[in-house]
Amino acid sequence: MDAGQYKDYILTLLFVKYVSDKAKADPDSLIDVPPGGSFDDMVAAKGDKEIGDRFNKIISRLAEANDLRNVIDLADFNDEEKLGKGKEIQDRLSKLVTIFSDLDFRGSRAEGDDLLGDAYEYLMRHFATESGKSKGQFYTPAEVSRVLAKVVGITKDTRQDQTVYDPTCGSGSLLLKVADETSRGISIYGQEKDNATWALSKMNMILHGYAAEHVILKGDTITSPQFTSGNVLQTFDFAVANPPFSLKSWSNGLELEYGRFEYGRPPEKNGDYAFLLHILKSLKSTGKAAVILPHGVLFRGNAEADIRQRLLKQGFIKGIIGLPSNLFYGTGIPACIIVLDKENAAGRTGVFMIDASKGFIKDGNKNRLRSQDIHKIVDVFTKQTTIDCYSRMVLLSEIADPKNDYNLNIPRYIDSSEPEDIQDLHAHLHGGIPDRDLDALNGYWDAFPKLRDQLFQPNRPGYSDLTIDVSKVQQAVLDSPEFQKFTQEAREIITEWFAAHRKKLEEIDETTRPNGLIAALGDDLLARFKPVPLLDEYDVYEQLMTYWHDAMHDDVFMVMNDGWLEAAKPRKIVVDKDRKLSETPDLVVGTGRSAEKYKMDLLPPNLIVERYFAKERAEVDELMSVSEEASRLVEEYVEEHAVEGGLLAEAMDGEKINKALASARLKKARHEGADADEVAVLSHLIKLYNAEAVAKKEFKEAEAALNLATLKKYGDLTERDVRTLVLDDKWAAVIRDRVTGEINASTVALVSRIQQLGGRYAETVGSLDAELEKLEAKIAANLAEMGVQ
Q1: Minimal CA–CA distance to 325: which of 340, 335, 316?
Q2: Using one digit for the tens of pLDDT, what is the confidence trace for 425-460?
Q3: Boundaries of every domain in the chain
Q4: Is residue 477 within 8 Å of 751, Cβ to Cβ?
Q5: Do 146 and 173 form a contact (C-beta atoms < 8 A)?
Q6: Which of 98, 199, 366, 633 could form a disulfide with 71 if both were Cys (CB 3.0 to 4.6 A apart)?
Q7: Which of 387, 383, 390, 409 shows the shortest CA–CA distance to 398?
Q8: Which run of H or E residues covers position 273?
């Protein structure tokens, strides 16, 4: 079925399972699970002919007990068109409920990290992707939500009684990301027009542990705002929003304006400023807001230009952040974040602008902000840092200048385009690499002060020559003492950074807050690499965060839930009745059907082998090389003698050669007194086959012994051993290698540029003319020899 319908079934089951489990673990849980309204009741309905109807009644009881009518009961589990008839629906729903029955949400909420919430967000992202334009509006990508939550001014010190409002809250994910930024929570208010999406937001709040006082109301924000007192809008400390872009029907049914359009009425066919002005009016006198809108709001004319000018003159616009295109579901157009701030608006003299349009990674058919992009945007905006081609404070006097006329289009004020690579005509004529091109690489020369003089020598004023052949540049850079010293110093920074946090990592237990842990690690890593030349500290940070998301986060959770020793234990992989593996094994002990296959989630076998069985590993590797060499000799010998007319080709009579066939042919040849050469060839081939079999056997036996010893070693490990292996041999080693990779990548860019410049100006016009004259003379001589004048 369509993803938009599928989500109703999946999220409903997820919700019922979650609240049922939480009610078992906590009698004071947010949801009352009545008799006949639990997930256990759904499990009891498995195999029943009336399973669909029973599911609907169970969900209805749960909904009525918690005032969740039309929230959790939108999916019809008795719909034959979607789920099939008779035995088909019976089997389908029985299998579906079985999948969910294997989950256990009783202890799913770790402090500061919400596994269920993460799962829900993942599903929401997937549904938004699959649902296309019409359904993508209910979900704001989590990465963008985090940026809004941070730049709006929410911090760990934000008080619990302060309020945040989202007038177009969709599934509520944006509000929840704001709440995540606080240490004690915040009072949440939201409004959503679409009934099904409003239901999602209600479920989302409960799944994330927010009680009924966190208000999500239904209705059209512009025509029927729900947070009012008479004809006056309720005001809030903070607001965040991702309104529908350029809504044409925004004013349909509008009667009361609530004073929202005092700075101008938006155009009838475009509602972007209607939402912005509604949010502005909904802020307290010190209120702050961050709103996602299409780039057009920054430069469109007529009524929107008048509103923009008046808001700027009032000082309400604190900042503008340009985002990459294709971030959002339902549209590929680039968007921006407009940050509003009523506090100190009268004294505001400029707008802080960021062009973050180039910081992203491709993720399927969408773009996505990376951890480093989020951190950089927030750091730069919070500290109001000026960075060339990225950010600066633009004075209102510059914006008001007639040449700009209150146009806020970011490229007017920040040129983020790549500098033009200018060809130097003088260098093409007379040789040499222009010094201005080498000066542009000053970041590298700052890191390696002596390298420029090592690679280049003066040619004439303003130009230099390579001292070595262009093909040898890369090796010269890698071999330079400065590069090696730089690499070593970077690795030492990583070592010192990890040592500073090692005790905290050793003490990971059920009370650890993973989000807080990685935030501390990441911020310290950024600070340590900030003064390091050549390396961008945000690129280094991204290496840590990528590893965190790929592996380290899961490692931390395993240790939190099971402890170091238990988390490190191997677990057998389940093999189903068709002998199919549920997972790819990390270690196999034994052979054939009796082979035992193991998964090592926290502690991969290679770490055990490297630390405890290095000698045995070397021996196995040597035996593997011997085995491969033996196979190569067989292959070479067969190729040499199995060609057409060769002795093996004749002996085998065109059949595919293998050991059994070769042995049979040899026996027959000897019996029949065949040609001595044929017997010799077959005999040598059998000898090679035997040597290969012996080599393979020795290799397999040694590998099997190593695998068995490795498996047994897991049982001998102490908690201290496990910590050392995970902390030093796994986490620290991987991060150190990833940072070293960043250094190597930057060096590749330097080498590539030098090779490009060296090749570009290697041949002057004069040298080409001389070569042309030589070739012309050679041709003339050849023609003369042939008697052609």
Answers
A1: 335
A2: 888 888 899 999 999 999 899 889 999 999 999 999
A3: 1-107, 108-125+136-410, 428-556+728-764, 563-717
A4: yes
A5: no
A6: 199
A7: 409
A8: helix 272-281
